[in-house]
Amino acid sequence: GGDGQVLAVANVGDSRTYLLRNGQLSLLTRDHSWVQEMVRAGQITREQAEIHPKRSTLTRALGIGGAVQVDVDIIEPKPGDRYLLCSDGLWDELTLTQIRNLLETVTDPDDAAARLVGDALVAGGRDNVTVVVVDAEEVPSLVALPDPDPDDARTKGEDEGQEDPLRAAEEEAS
User: Fold this and answer.
1) Are 138 and 80 in contact (CB under 8 A)?
2) 121 membership: H or E segment, kind and range
3) How far apart, in whole angstroms, are the C-alpha atoms of residue 7 and residue 76?
4) Is residue 96 within 8 Å of 154, Cβ to Cβ?
5) Which of 13, 23, 90, 124 lies deepest, with the highest CB count within 10 Å?
6) What separation in angstroms does the CA of 166 have from each of 43, 163, 169, 173, 174?
7) What residues are paired with 132 via a beta bridge?
């Protein structure tokens, strides 16, 4: 944290990005569906949205028309964060509690993704199930190394007396 490293989260449609941090699973993206627009406007409840016959009707999607508005959020990842990118085939089949519990107990991200896909298929698998799990890790700051000292024996080539083939090619080309 605080080192200027950021993560851009972009979405269009109803694929989602979740953040698991300190045991809390938070939705980072907003669905672009007709029913979710109604929920945001207060016209129906979340519970009504889950069973609404038009819950899969999208208001934004890629590949349908020309320009599309993309939601982009910039967040600061912290070591230990786990990100879940998934299609509606996952979150439509499993509860958030099931998803969170699996993300907390399966430590390898690839294994967690495979288990989530498998669990969604077993639960009904009525839609395609796409899952990516990414763990944020501590990234050491880059340290600028000093330029090598041309007189330092450790930085000289083993074959000091031989011609440099790259320099010879450059001279030949000019």
Assistant:
1) no
2) helix 109-122
3) 6
4) no
5) 90
6) 70, 9, 5, 11, 13
7) 85
**81-122 pLDDT per residue, tens:** 999 999 988 988 999 999 999 999 999 999 999 999 999 999
Q: Is there a contact between 61 and 68 (Cβ–Cβ < 8 Å)?
A: yes
Torsion (CA) 89, 25, 28, 138 in degrees, nearest 10: -110
**What is the spatial distance between Cα 89 and Cα 91, in angstroms, rounded to a whole number?**
6
E strand intervals along the chain: 7-11, 16-21, 24-27, 71-75, 82-86, 131-135
Q: Which amino acid is at 104?
A: E
pTM: 0.71
DSSP label at 153? Answer: G
Distance of CA 18 to the CA centre of its chain: 9
Cα atoms in the 13 Å half-sphere on the side-chain side of 113: 16
DSSP labels, 80-108: T-EEEEE-HHHHTTS-HHHHHHHHHH--S
